[in-house]
Amino acid sequence: MPFETILHLAYSALAGLLIGSFLNVCIYRVPRDLSVVSPRSFCPECGKPVAWYDNIPLLSYARLKGRCRHCGKPIGIRYPLVEITTAFFFVGTILHFGWNLNGFKWCLFQAIMIVLFWIDLEERLLPDEFTLGGSALGLLFAFFTKVPGDLGELLLPTVSARGQSLFEALAGAFILTLPLAAIGLIWGKLTKRDVLGLGDVKLLPCMGLFLGVEVGIQTLLLGSLLGVAIGGIYIFIMKKKAREYELPLGSFYCGAAALAPLFMKF
Ligand SMILES: [Zn+2]
């Protein structure tokens, strides 16, 4: 492996740790409507500010043995977990796509999916800042990088590559969103239960705009399968009531979506 590539992978790992640390702030604060810039990091248990030397990704958690310096209450395992998974995703993506705009786009997409995965898991919420904000970014990137899939090329052979990419993104958004939104609406009317939350419906255009039709559908299928399998096992082991348990379906979609770029042909 060329030295330059090793250097790029090291940068990606470092960026992943630092951005993962910021994603943790978003995961805690955005669903609580708190600002993500100020105040500085604080312990959610005792409210004391976290000094910079206690806020170094992974290292501080290890040195403090996962406890707050002031009150000694445990710091969630989610903090180091998000930092390390973000770093792994970034390294994998740069290794796969290279140190270029495409690699940058997929790292950004994965960061959004990681945040949404955890917020949905912890709060059963998918905030607009990330679903709608992510959709806007997906549309923007469709101008500058090729959206995966060849539907645009197939249906619009005379249109420019940029036009085909945009078509692919918009088709992905519609095809992913409309059927599920319709099923959710009808099913909800029949059972009088909110099976597919509005947040889930807003997540789908974001996934479609980035992933396009083909990868988008594969990702949705994988996410649904994982959701049913893991959710089913969880309900069985924890002896939850299946009728009352609210599955974080968005988390499964986001997990599958974050993995998708690593297996993508381009
Ligand atoms: Zn504390």
Q: What composes the largest sheet?
A: none
- Assign the structural class, choosing from mainly alpha, mainly beta, alpha/beta, alpha+beta, or little secondary structure: mainly alpha
**Gyration radius, in Å:** 20 Å
Q: Report the strand count.
A: 0
Average per-residue pLDDT, rounded, comes to: 92
Order of helices and strands: HHHHHHHHH
State the share of residues found in helices, binned by percent: 55-70%
Global geometry: globular
Q: Kindly estimate the percentage of residues that lie in beta strands according to DSSP.
A: under 5%
Q: What is the count of structural domains?
A: 2
Q: Name the bound molecules.
A: zinc ion
Distance between the termini: 21 Å
Query: How many helix segments?
Result: 9
Q: Any low-confidence stretches, pLDDT <50, length ≥5? A: none
Describe this structure in a few short sentences:
It is built from 9 helices and no strands.
Description:
The protein is mainly alpha-helical. The protein has 2 domains: 99 residues, no CATH class; 142 residues, no CATH class. 67% of the residues lie in helices and 0% in strands. 38% of the residues are buried. The site of zinc ion (ZN) has 8 residues, from loops. The site of zinc ion has 8 residues, from loops.
